Amino acid sequence: MTKSLPNVRGTVTRNKDLGGLTWLRVGGPADVLFQPADVEDLAAFLSGLPTEVPVFPMGVGSNLIVRDGGVRGVVIRLGRGFNGIDIDSDRVTAGAAALDAHVARKAAEAGLDLTFLRTIPGSIGGAVRMNAGCYGSYTGDVFESAEVVLRDGTRATLSASDLNFAYRSTTLPEGAVMVSATFKAPNGDPEELTARMEAQLAKRDETQPTKDRTAGSTFRNPAGFSSTGREDDTHDLKAWKVIDNAGMRGATRGGAVMNTMHSNFLTNAGGATAADLEDLGEEVRKAVYAQSGITLQWEIMRVGERDAPKAAKKQ
Ligand SMILES: Cc1cc2nc3c(=O)[nH]c(=O)nc-3n(C[C@H](O)[C@H](O)[C@H](O)COP(=O)(O)OP(=O)(O)OC[C@H]3O[C@@H](n4cnc5c(N)ncnc54)[C@H](O)[C@@H]3O)c2cc1C
Fold first, then answer.
1. For ligand 1, is residue 66 a contact (CB within 6 Å)?
2. Is 217 among the catalytic positions?
3. Where is the composition biased (Polar residues) (predicted)?
């Protein structure tokens, strides 16, 4: 990792442990964690950063396993300066660091329906990148545009056609950091929207381990709803069902467990390493394949190295 980094107004921390910044509370350090002061600071940093240094933007880590050896290169995490929410008629523009729940509540107060975001524990950057969704609505359904800073420091506006929204995926360019996104939301009555969000929160608590250390659904549904509406892209078979059929509900490895309340929630039940979690996930994939012939695909993003870098040899 490069010794000299561009001068910035934000915060640069070398060898910063990322575990505490993720929902699963596992993972090693980033070579460098950069928290830009604002979009100009971010753009100047990226344009001055040698092109060979990898860049990984993270949100609030609710869909991530950071491996135990940490992440080489620069991890960028947006904070204050990127969490504003502006509402203009039926359009909501939110900073990429704004929490989905906060955006949903603000929109509802203004009579705009982004209620599906209320129970997703991520940030707007993560919601767009992952095409997050639930209860039949997806980020791609309401998305209009996103402001990004590309890896070379140039700024761009991306439209839905640039991002190719599909089930839990988009084609955001590698190393691009989203700084804000604009959504066009349907109208609704504020009181009804608030009541719907409360009902959804209650439903979550009844059906999912919302108080445990998880990263949400571990595997994509082999078939589940999708925002594309294409006939070849419906997903009705649930991952939890095939995991149950393979007898893996409650399976453990070290401190990792396939949650007994919802078997598609890989959980840090205490003291798990990233390797425990990832290895248990792989064991589940093998068991499901052996039992049903279905290859489960990870929905949780796994980033970084399994092992810490070897210390540089002393001369
Ligand atoms: C209890 C629980 C319930 C969940 N329920 C749901 C659900 O119902 N539906 C659903 O879709 N997901 C769900 N999730 C998963 C997760 O919350 C979503 O995927 C969320 O959108 C991730 O956002 P994040 O900010 O945490 O992103 P992270 O986990 O930090 O990152 C996820 C991806 O987004 C990218 N990213 C984040 N911010 C930026 C940015 N500013 N610019 C560029 N790329 C960025 C990262 O590079 C990474 O590729 C759940 C998770 C938990 C823990």
1. no
2. yes
3. 215-228
Burial class from Cβ neighbours inside 10 Å (0-12, 13-18, 19+) for residue 182 reads: middle
Same domain, 184 and 89: yes
Q: If you measure from the C-alpha of residue 312 to the centroid of ligand 1, how many angstroms do you get, rounded to a whole number?
A: 35
Same domain, 176 and 101: yes
Query: Do 254 and 298 sit in the same domain of this protein?
Result: yes
The last residue of one of the domains, among 31, 58, 77, is 77
Residue 167 is predicted with a pLDDT of: 87
Query: Residue 23 maps to which CATH number?
Result: 3.30.43.10
Backbone angles phi, psi at 126, to 5 degrees: -65, -35
177 lines ligand 1 (CB under 6 A): yes
Q: Which of 168, 213, 220, 249 is catalytic?
A: 168
- Kindly state if the Cβ of 24 falls inside 6 Å of ligand 1: no
Q: Is the alpha carbon torsion for 114, 120, 123, 125 positive or negative?
A: negative
- We report the CATH number of the domain holding residue 169 as 3.30.465.10
Q: Could you tell me the sign of the dihedral formed by the alpha carbons of 149, 151, 153, 158, in that order? A: negative
242 contact partners, CB below 8 Å, separation of at least 6: 222, 288, 291, 292, 294, 296
Atom of ligand 1 nearest to the CA of 56: 47
Q: Tell me if 121 CB under 6 Å of ligand 1.
A: yes
25 belongs to a structural domain? yes
Q: Is the separation of the CB atoms in 68 and 79 below 8 Å?
A: no
pLDDT of residue 235 exceeding 80: no
CA distance 56 to 59: 10
Q: How many domains does the chain have?
A: 3
Q: What is the pLDDT of residues 170-223, one digit of tens each?
A: 999 999 999 999 999 999 999 999 999 999 999 999 999 999 999 999 999 886
* 94 and 182 co-located in one domain: yes
Q: Give 128's pLDDT tier (boundaries 50, 70, 90).
A: very high
Q: Which of 130, 147, 217, 259 to mutate to test the pocket of ligand 1 (most atoms within 8 A of CB)?
A: 130
Q: pLDDT at position 4, please?
A: 82
